[in-house]
User: Fold this.
Amino acid sequence: MHPLVPSPGGPLDDADLAAHYAYPAGLAAPYVRVNFVTSADGAVTVDGRSGGLGSAADRQVFGLLRELADVVLAGAGTVRAENYRGARRPTRGTDTPPPIAVVSGSADLDPASRLFTDTAVPPIVLTLDSAPLDRRERLAAAGGDVVVLERLTPDLVLAELARRGLHRVLCEGGPALFGSLVAADAVDELCLTVAPLLAGGTAGRIIRGPEGSHPRPMDLVGVLEDAGILLLRYRRAAPIG
Ligand SMILES: NC(=O)c1ccc[n+]([C@@H]2O[C@H](COP(=O)([O-])OP(=O)(O)OC[C@H]3O[C@@H](n4cnc5c(N)ncnc54)[C@H](OP(=O)(O)O)[C@@H]3O)[C@@H](O)[C@H]2O)c1
Assistant:
């Protein structure tokens, strides 16, 4: 993997890559990094999943970003579609992997799925009082750390993570959750892998959000290239003036 931005250079080793993707030091509040892979024509899936867009470089960065995070935040749609399991590797500097925190208004998750059965740490299920009680109880019995919030808005979701000291947030999508975060202006960073292929079809793009959401300016702060794959890093633009 070679850097093009901030300055062109030779191959990056593991330490260089970790430095490239370092979270800001000394965070006292959640910092939301979102990670997605897309095709060159903007598709977020091939045949309904992201796997068809993957590559060795994308998987390497996907894994590294998890190792740098305190928590992996995902929408229930992604957890269901991708049959999520717990993160494997510990967060760097600790001996436990980051928990997966799932946002699900319905609590419609399978307690027998890998999210609950194949994980070193309990998944956090962020849900609502309106979700059927028996579902919530089944998820708790399966080992889930089930939390009922008043609303599943980004401010309350992030406040719950902050309450647990989980400040380095890695959101792995999907488009609906990303859309909510953008509408709430809660996104600090986007890591976007662009796969060199044209997916065609009717796949959506990386955000599905409410109409009328304001465009959020971002600064391009990192570009890595590997075999035609671009790994872009955008950070919330500094306020003008
Ligand atoms: N290319 C990539 O990098 C990438 C990354 C991630 C996902 N994906 C793909 O994206 C698809 C899934 O994305 P999606 O957009 O359908 O689902 P999603 O964003 O993962 O999850 C949406 C679900 O989250 C829950 N939710 C609760 N509060 C919410 C809120 N405030 N905002 C948004 N969601 C909230 C709801 O769950 P309940 O229905 O349980 O109430 C909602 O149905 C899959 O096909 C997956 O493969 C691709």
Q: What stands out?
A: Residues 36-37, 44-45, 48-50, 53, 74-78, 81-82, 103-106, 108, 152, 172-177, 180, 208 surround NAP (CB under 6 Å). Residues 30-236 form a domain with the Dihydrofolate Reductase, subunit A fold (CATH 3.40.430.10). The mean pLDDT is 96.
